[in-house]
Amino acid sequence: MAISSLSFACRPGFPLRPCLFRRIQKVRFSSVAAIETLDVQENVIKGNSRNLGDCKAPEWKKLSSKELGLSNSLISMPTKKVLNGLKKNGYEVYLVGGCVRDLILKRIPKDFDIITSAELKEVVRAFSRCEIVGKWFPICHVHVGDTIVEVSSFSTTGRKFKVDLRNDIICPIDCDEKDYVRWKNCLQRDFTINGLMFDPYKRIVYDYMGGLEDIKKAKVRTVIPAGISFQEDCARILRAVRIAARLGFRFTRETAHFVKNLSHLLLRLDKPRIMMEMNYMLAYGSAEASLRILWKFGLLELLLPIQAAYFVRDGFKRRDKRSNMLLCLFSNLDKLLAPDRPCHSSLW
């Protein structure tokens, strides 16, 4: 099985400098997968500190899960069954995204996402109850009892940037073939703290986007420049608010600027998508913090105009630290909820 996302020699949309690599050669990724990879030309990278977001391109890191205090016992049983099923078939498997972030923070993940070297059709063949969903970014839904575990593939088509970022995105130094596959996938993530991969068998956490440093600093930072990221997918603005509210993190300066100044893009979203994102904010235990951030950055008027009108009538300032009746109600609701114990949307 060839991982097609690396067959980019004929893909002009792939955002890397043409001179970044010397040659293409066939190598083995695992016992069941061969991929096309490239040797990094180090002298092209040295001295280049162009930004991926609003910081210098980070050095990639590999850390043991023990060093981070991350235990496999925190992984849910349905997720373990899917991981084991793919691993037994000879595929590379990783936990990826927000669940890795939450495990590092000793929080209960809302859900677990898996990425694998298997093609989606191979994932379907590996499990009796599994189907491919999604048109633009297809993934597999694996049913384990009453739980759905999402599985994506490295072979799924990667990001197609709307602007030329060849001068902004640089491959990590000393990047081997497997690192390159993982790194390229991490470029598709929304925020650096969601760009982490965890191999539960080797017990290694891979960080190519500087996510661990941003977790340490409690910062929400986009992987690519925030203005470009939010124009590509304006729903990321709402996800940024949700993450900051739930974790008690702050936006970086660049992220904060574009959350506020590109808020009008949210009008592009259809009502079901807005309802889904708002439910994630308000029904999982971080409603009060979410409302404060939405109000601070001028988003509340677009999303919940009645609540915004109440804030105006109450004389509530954008950076007000006080509370009011509405915030008190949501604060009391938050005490009863958690990511694994949400409420029905009718309550908010």
TrEMBL record:
Residues 93-221 form the Poly A polymerase head domain. It comes from the Eukaryota. InterPro entries: NT_sf (IPR043519), PolA_pol_head_dom (IPR002646), PolyA_RNA-bd (IPR032828), tRNA_ntf/polyA_polymerase_I (IPR052191). GO terms for molecular function: nucleotide binding; nucleotidyltransferase activity; RNA binding. GO terms for biological process: tRNA 3'-terminal CCA addition. CDD domains: NT_ClassII-CCAase. The keyword Methyltransferase does not apply. It holds the Pfam family PolyA_pol_RNAbd. Residues 248-309 form the tRNA nucleotidyltransferase/poly(A) polymerase RNA and SrmB- binding domain. Keywords: Nucleotide-binding, RNA-binding, Transferase. Belongs to the tRNA nucleotidyltransferase/poly(A) polymerase family. PANTHER family: POLYNUCLEOTIDE ADENYLYLTRANSFERASE FAMILY PROTEIN, POLYNUCLEOTIDE ADENYLYLTRANSFERASE FAMILY PROTEIN-RELATED. This is Poly(A) polymerase I-like isoform X2. It comes from Populus alba x Populus x berolinensis.
